[in-house]
Model the fold of this input.
Amino acid sequence: MGEQPIFSTRAHVFQIDPNTKKNWVPTSKHAVTVSYFYDSTRNVYRIISLDGSKAIINSTITPNMTFTKTSQKFGQWADSRANTVYGLGFSSEHHLSKFAEKFQEFKEAARLAKEKSQEKMELTSTPSQESAGGDLQSPLTPESINGTDDERTPDVTQNSEPRAEPTQNALPFSHSSAISKHWEAELATLKGNNAKLTAALLESTANVKQWKQQLAAYQEEAERLHKRVTELECVSSQANAVHTHKTELNQTIQELEETLKVKEEEIERLKQEIDNARELQEQRDSLTQKLQVLGSIFVIISQEDTRPLPR
Done:
């Protein structure tokens, strides 16, 4: 059957920087498909992601792996075989939770598969171990090789070839030694993997501390920006108030200009009236002078009229 995809999602893929072991290095320019695969022939689960034709994730899930959520949309796991730490950035917390659930599910399935495989190996090696144990309890003697004196026959003693029992009895010992070496190698591999996982865990812990520090710095920056936004909003409201006040002043100035224009027109009218009044005054003075002259002439005429006539 081969490998079959059993779950897929999309995420941004990162790997830990191999030099600093602290910073994340993006391995995809955009979100790519990340899939869980099941290999029925080997009974293993793998996480695979391709960016074009390049495999940017090829991680076999083992019972020792742990998927850690480091934020609402980011998670990571260490792969000792690939000697790296993978990180995935999701578009939502729901996608991250779903991926984490599948990781735990397939990790448990990998653990059960490994336990079954170990049980089969133990069952296969049990007869040889029992045989080896029996041989250890019954040391080799001439009787165990060639039988007792009562069982021997003259033909066997004289003509038969040496028996093969020692060689057959030695087979369980060699088989047990091979199994012991196999398990020693497995133990050494597990110790190496454990050391790598421990180192990866320490690195992840250091990364978590660094991320916490970065998060605290981001939170401080966010608070500072929030305060700045609040200040700008206050300034904006003040600017709006100034603009409103300016508009009101402009209206007042316009009204005052119109009033001033009316007053100037009234002043011009009053000036015209004053000029007219002056002309009338001049006419009056002129008439008054004329009247005075006429009055004087009239008096003179009157006096002449009252003078006695000569005789």
Summary: The first strand starts at residue 3 and ends at 16. Helices lie at 93-137, 142-146, 154-158, 165-306. The first helix runs from residue 93 to 137. The CA atoms of residues 63 and 108 lie 7 Å apart.
